Amino acid sequence: MQAINLTHYAIKETITYYFGLENRIKKALQNKESFQGSYYNLHSFTSGTIFDRAIEPSHQALSPEQHAIILADVQSSIDGRIARHKDRLKLFNRYLVNIDVDTLKQALNSPDSVPSDIEIATYEEIQEIEQYIRLKYNPRKYVNTIKPKKKQNAISKQRESNVLQRLASFDMTAD
Fold first, then answer.
1. 84 lies in which domain range?
2. What's the confidence (pLDDT) of residue 38?
3. Other C-beta atoms lying within 10 Å of the C-beta of residue 125
4. pLDDT tens across 7-18, in order?
5. Sign of the C-alpha dihedral, residues 99, 103, 109, 115?
6. CB–CB of 118/107 below 8 Å?
7. CA-based R_g, the chain, Å
8. What is the pLDDT of residue 99?
9. Is 27 domain-assigned?
10. Three-state SS across the chain?
11. End-to-end Cα separation, the chain, in angstroms
12. What distance in Å separates the CA atoms of residue 171 and residue 169, rounded to the nearest whole number?
């Protein structure tokens, strides 16, 4: 039995995933259109079961506001997924213009256990796309990870003061 190179497998799966983005966008749009109707069909707006350990189960309906929050949250989640997929597809298509797509597809279908140069280059481009998506849609998680020190010591305050005095002493009108 031949050993499987998981790294090469992961590269192929990632590239194949990107080739299927257009179908994923279509499916997400269909889910968005059908979600609201199916939500109304599956949930009762007159009662719901609430379990309490001390007493028997009771029935109580969710408020219209709670239903609206659930619907808005799911719709927002689907919209975000669609936007991320559209950005991925746009950037991936920009990359595909610069390479031979037929060669890439042949490399993906080949049984070789070592990734080809075009597969590696495409995978690296996908990693850059993913980093862009992470920074665009969740910047707080990746930006400002280094927090400035709250207290400055006396020496650094003195240096800052000296620099500001020197800058103020320059004659900006002289050539």
1. 6-144
2. 78
3. 19
4. 888 999 999 999
5. negative
6. yes
7. 28
8. 92
9. yes
10. CCCCCHHHHHHHHHHHHHHCHHHHHHHHHHHHHHHHHHHHHHCCCCCCEECCCCCCCEECCCCHHHHHHHHHHHHHHHHHHHHHHHHHHHHHHHHHCCCCHHHHHHHHHCCCCCCCHHHHHHHHHHHHHHHHHHHHHCHHHHCCCCCCCCCCCHHHHHHHHHHHHHHHHCCCCCC
11. 78
12. 6
Q: Which position has the higher pLDDT, 75 or 6?
A: 75
The number of folded domains in the chain is 1
What is the C-alpha to C-alpha distance for residues 95 and 103, in angstroms, rounded to an integer? 14
Residue with structure tokens 């689907």?
A: 78
Token duo for residue 65: 């506001």
Q: Indicate the length of the chain as a whole number.
A: 175
**Which one is predicted more confidently, 135 or 142?**
135
pLDDT tens per residue across span 78-114: 999 999 999 999 999 999 999 999 999 999 998 887 8
